[in-house]
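In response to reviewer comment 3 from the previous cycle, which asked for concrete evidence that the modeling workflow produces usable outputs, we include below a single protein chain processed end to end. The sequence was submitted unchanged, and the resulting structure tokens are shown without manual editing.
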Amino acid sequence: MDEQFFLGKPGSEGREDWYLMFYIGFRILQMRWQIPAANTARLSLFNSFPQPVWQPGFYLRDCQSASMGYDWAMKTVKKLLHTRYRVDDLEETVKFYRDVLGLKETRRHKSDRGSELVFMKAPESEELIELCQFSASGPVKVQADLTHLAFQVDSLEEFGRHLASHGYKYSDGPHRRPDGSGIAFVDAPEGYEIELIQRSK
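The workflow returned the following structure tokens.
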């Protein structure tokens, strides 16, 4: 018994953390890869370490976090790929995103159910915006303050003049902050709201 760690006793929290992580990690790999006990026995380095003895008071939360870390990493999402907006007039919306906002059309196709899809991309972003036209779902009705997309601009004033040259204007703002940053909004075709953000310099 004197070669066993009593995890959870006062003063042991920091001293045996390294050992606990190794022990739990090995057991996770053993279960995941289904390592036979006979092969495990050959690992003299592992067998030379004392086996932990669990006592009341052991910080279970840390144990659960370590033992479940592998499964958590495998089951959660990796990154945002695209955001979808359905519209009635696909080409009008594509023109707004391309000519007014400056996005690039990356691809378009028709889905198996008949949706017309166009994917747009901002110059410095990886995520895509999927514009969808599917008349069978009925007319699009965009609720006020339901959703919006936010884009960064260098200057709200300059972008405001750019909007005016295309027949648009800010629906709200610009709203300035003391540090020089600010926000403004413009309504895209069919009522979807676009936020423009200028960062402080």
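Strands lie at 5-7, 52-54, 82-86, 104-110, 116-121, 128-133, 148-153, 172-176, 182-187, 193-198. We consider this sufficient to address the reviewer's concern, and the full set will be provided in the supplementary archive.
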